[in-house]
User: Fold this.
Amino acid sequence: MIKRQIARAQRGFTLIELMIVVAIIGILAAIAIPQYQDYVTRSRWSDNFQAVGSLKTAIAECLQFRAGASADCDSYGELQSNGFWPSGAAPTLKANYGTVGALVGNGTTGVGAAITIPFTGGSLTASCTVDMTGTLNADNVVWTFTNTGGTCTRTRTGVGT
Assistant:
């Protein structure tokens, strides 16, 4: 009798136990994989935003030193000719992360003057479009983000609404 019980105990897992383990792994994978993909995309967008850190500084200084004249700061060439940007070209992003477009000013002078840095995402950043807008206040330049595109939400890009 004892030999029979020992033999049964050493046979391995039952089918139901294996099915439960497979079901748990499937549920975890169904939840974790999309979350991980969004996390990776957000980190790539973070790289994009860090790549234009010096451009943000150049725009902020230009708006503050040029009395908020957005027309003096709304292109790479104007930033360069006014001594705020070293080259007349947009910053370069990593391959397949997207591109930085031409700067867009709102034509306002003084408080409320704004410059927008448009990003067009690449294949590795969900092809989203994000606009980073710096608006001159009395004391500083405040940066806001806007996402456009069907699936381009804060969950995907890490910024905006």
